[in-house]
Amino acid sequence: VIFLFATIFVAAVIAIDEETHPSMQGMQSLSISYETPEQYSLLKNYVDVPGFDFVKSTKDFVDVLVTADKIKDFKQLLEEHRMNYTVMVEDVQQLVSEEYIAQEVERRLQARTQDYASGRLSFTYYPNYKEVNEYLTYLTQTYKNIASLITIGNSYEGRSMKVLKLSTGGGNKPAIFIDAGIHAREWIAPATALYMVDLMLQSHTDLLAKVDWYVLPVLNPDGYEYTHSSSANRLWRKTRSNTGSICKGVDGNRNYDMQWMTIGASSNPCSDTYAGPKAFSEVENQHLRDFILARKGQIKAYLTFHSYGQYILYPWGWTSSVPSNEPELRNLASQCAQAIAKSRRTRYTYGTSANALYPAAGGSDDWALGKAGINLSYTYELPGGNSGFLLPASEIKPVGVETFEALKVVHQYVTSKYASH
Ligand code: 0X9
Ligand code: ZN
To answer: Edge-to-edge strands of the sheet including 147-154?
Structure first.
């Protein structure tokens, strides 16, 4: 009897695992362009269908991961409808495994050094949650008069959420708030946020003179750790909360109380864009909300880092109409895009989320502007190279350097508009 029970249990666990983790063996990443509304609706039929993961949708193309068992028929269908596609990744599993090995090699090389023992990061691999925290502690010990940590609460699974505060003291300074890692698999986002902090503290302390900085590098620690824990979990996006379904997690960026669930979000707990049972159901988002609202008057710019696609997005995401300060938002975005282009010729598109990307409600950027009253609110979709989320770690520094150029522009704008001179 016990044996039978055990067998059923194991089978059930495997079944659940199948449900949330389609095999990446032979999974391909396709980039498909479309022109007609018919072609678009054909693609839309596959959203939330098991075996299909629409990792990027824009006005003229989609990137979709398709499992091995579905790929042949799907390609045939695309060809029948005369739709152009390119295979971006031939075998997702292979790429994930390669990344996993490269990560371990770099980490072990680093682990032999003094730097590693001190908590410093080399930015040659993507740090896990523990390494991020060690780095934050290292910063507070190294830059005692500038860097401090504010624990804003614990995640669903009990991981502490730490905001790094950079301040040279003196009251009444405007602040810039940065978060990253609300989407677990977008590894370049936390790494870039941290690398920009590194640049600021090591060689650009002028950025600290008139502005205070708050940086929350990992807004979704449970999801982030999950993607680091095994290569099978590498493409997880959501939080890890249990919402009473066999499918875990909520899309943090559909969960904010700003036109929650009105568009571009799902009520299906198994969907990757599940908005949650109610607005702010996610404890991580509650902590972020409370932190920001407590510093509402001080925080002048809200920047949230995601990947991928090279977009500078601003509100609204929930409607195609634009906020009243759209000219200001557009102007600043354009200057940021130019600064990045000048640095490494990386081309960013900018515009409101709904118009430049796709409509989606319940995002943190919309909430920051609409509810917290932070006029300068931006989502950065960092580069993804040819492999999307699986951007080689050798790109951390170059992406950090070019994105830092945009940060300087935002800093300059906030200083001239809000700082006392
Ligand atoms: O869909 C998202 O949450 C963001 N793109 S991602 O590929 N990183 O998932 C874009 C969010 C843009 N902002 C709003 N829609 N409010
Ligand atoms: Zn994202």
So the answer is: 147-154, 160-166, 212-216, 175-180, 299-307, 376-382, 311-314, 349-352
Lateral strand order in the sheet of 28-33: 52-57, 61-66, 28-33, 85-89
Q: Do residues 362 and 356 lie in contact, with contact meaning Cβ atoms separated by under 8 Å?
A: no
pTM of the model: 0.94
Look-up of token digits 């920047």: 303
Q: What one-letter code names the amino acid at 58?
A: T
All residues at 6 or more sequence positions from 7 whose CB lies less than 8 Å from its CB, including other chains: none
| Residue 381 known to be catalytic | yes
Q: Per residue in 213-242, pLDDT tens?
A: 999 999 999 999 999 999 999 999 999 999
The pick from 183, 224, 311, 377 for probing ligand 1's pocket by mutation, whose C-beta has the most ligand atoms within 8 angstroms, reads: 183
Q: What does DSSP say about strands 212-216 and 349-352: parallel, antiparallel, or unpaired?
A: unpaired
Are 88 and 30 within 8 A, CB to CB? Answer: yes
Residue 263's Cβ-side half-sphere holds a number of Cα atoms within 13 Å equal to 13
- Using the atom order of ligand 1, give the atom closest to the CA of residue 316: 16
